[in-house]
Amino acid sequence: MAKADRYSPSSSPLYERFPLKYTNHRILDVVVSLLLASLLLYRLLHLHHHGIAWLIALSCESWFAFFWLLAVSTKWTPAEFKTYPERLSERVEERGLPAVDMFVTTADPVLEPPIITVNTVLSLMAVDYPVSKLACYVSDDGCSPLTYYSLVEASKFARLWVPFCKKYNVHVRAPFRYFSVAEVSSGNGESSEFRQECEKMKEEYGKLCCKIEEATGKQPSSWDVTYSGDLAAFAHVERRNHPTIIKVIWENKYDTWAGEEGLPHLVYISREKHPEHPHHYRAGAMNVLTRVSGVMTNAPLMLNMDCDMYANNPLIVRYAMCVLLDARREEGFVQFPQSFYGALKDDPFGNQLVVLLQFVGAGISGIQGAFYGGTGCFHRRKVIYGLCPVDNTGEFSEKELLRIFGTSIEFAESAGLALKGHTNSQTNTSRGRLLDSVEVANQVAGCNYESSSNWGKPNIGWQYGSTTEDVLTGLGIHTRGWSSVMCNPYPVAFLGCAPTGGPASLTQQKRWATGLLEILISGRNPLISVFTAKLQFRQCLAYLWINNNSNFLSSAIPSSLLIASSTTPISSRSCKIQESTS
Ligand SMILES: O=c1ccn([C@@H]2O[C@H](COP(=O)(O)OP(=O)(O)O[C@H]3O[C@H](CO)[C@@H](O)[C@H](O)[C@H]3O)[C@@H](O)[C@H]2O)c(=O)[nH]1
Questions:
Q1: Which of 43, 78, 49 is nearest to 61 (CA)?
Q2: Predicted complex ipTM exceeds 0.95
Q3: Where in the sequence is the active site (predicted)?
């Protein structure tokens, strides 16, 4: 039974918001703003004495001043959130904690090697949270037998790895990072028993890597010969033209409360693809994950992760719960910052997003809340299903649910429950039913399923129409009046790999800039939402700032690289060319 004061606003808070005082920054911002204003005034007053050159200069400076004001507004009232996971146990018993469905997306077994995805999945399966409340779903847009095979092998390794991490309170639960740091240590000292078990884990992880490497080396044509049975579904599939493949790799079959025993569910999904149907990239994958998990476990909370980011802090789910269970205000989502390992010295391409996190992140935390950054984010399922904070009752008729969410009666039922705020710990329907729901899951993962529904349209699911579906989806949530929280615990919640080269950075920046521009020129422009919906004015300015900033960066990087290379002495340039061609 949940503890009596579970959601009581009078007891000590699970999280708090602290305004930050960046006084020197503010003074500097005001001084620069005044200088800009005087420059513009000077230009205006003397415009008639000069020709077209001054007019061009005036328009450029006006644009810069506008851009500057957007930045100042975004950073003006910075704030940070502090969470208290240690207070969670005072509010709610372990068995009363809500369930969480964790989504991992992967799209290409060559660019995103399965061992990376495997590490992400292992780190999530090992988080400190009751296992019977967790389910991990992997979406594979590459429809790769190698990815599936790797996950099956990983689930066998997880049966050793997860108990080991929990027994010794291991801090880093992605094995590739754990075994690569110099001093491998648990949080509980280093007994000889620990050393022995650690060696064993290292050996087992080595075996897992070997198996995956061996399978990677095989020719694709030999896959369907070598792997029959479980892998038969992958025989003769084309990456962009294949039926849905859903495999329950591991089902936690405990019918009753099993505490920390066992492993979370692990489900592999490769949604149906057909050349005539748009698949909407990651947004499409996320919507399929949402529907499949809806008919399987229907957890009220969903975490989504890129395959190249792992959970670096085993308490992440508890940190998110501090915000999502607090009674004072319902937040739409909790975003953890994107941090990266293996950074280049001095971060020459700005891939670490330091300014974005430290200043802009803190700035928007003081307005309506963090942008949705695509990975490392916990959403409420009902928010993704389009609920507004005011109509929180979530009562819909079955007919309405079928119209909005497509023709599956089972999915409509699950959506009805989610919209009413039910959790599967309340309805207790998920244990042992995953295999039974595979048929319905196949139906909702079909490429035709969305055709007569609202998926991807404003308010329902991950939004279509922009390559930055994360920003668009987050904007939609803010537009409905929800706020969000940036949670930044120590150690950092998630770590991933960022591009380390100029061209890769540029491609990424260009993709983001294109996606943001698509939002700006669409009907979902934040400026429109200020007047027609509930987006706060300064939050709208922040969205405009990130848009401008991204477009500015994507055009500034090539020119700065050009300047940098043209100022590099000829002798050193020729040395570099020699190095790269040797
Ligand atoms: O058709 C696709 C394309 C991509 N992905 C997955 O989406 C994630 C992000 O794709 P990536 O190409 O790595 O984009 P990035 O620019 O690195 O990602 C950032 O920017 C994206 C667009 O804003 C967000 O979706 C991401 O969450 C965010 O980390 C990866 O896990 C991919 O496997 C799919 O599942 N299906």
A1: 43
A2: yes
A3: 141, 470
In terms of DSSP bridges, do strands 484-486 and 333-335 run parallel, antiparallel, or are they unpaired? parallel
For residue 490, pLDDT over 50 is answered with yes
Out of 140, 306, 326, 470, pick the active-site residue.
Answer: 470
Nearest of 472, 549, 545 to residue 509 by alpha carbon: 549
Q: What's the Cα-to-Cα distance from 343 to each of 120, 349, 352, rounded to whole Å?
A: 19, 10, 7
**Tokens of residue 518, six digits:** 């698509």
Q: At 158, give phi and psi (nearest 5°).
A: -60, -30
Are 268 and 250 in contact, with CB atoms under 8 Å apart? no
108 is known as an active-site residue = no
Contact 477, 383 (CB under 8 A): yes
Give the integer Cα–Cα distance in Å for 528 and 550.
20
Q: Cβ of 358: how many Cβ atoms within 10 Å?
A: 14
Model confidence, pTM: 0.90
Spatial neighbors of 254 by CB under 8 A, at least 6 apart, are: 132, 261, 262, 431
Burial of 17 (0-12, 13-18, 19+ CB in 10 A): middle
- Of residues 573 and 323, the one with the higher pLDDT is 323
Annotation-wise, does 112 bind a ligand?
yes
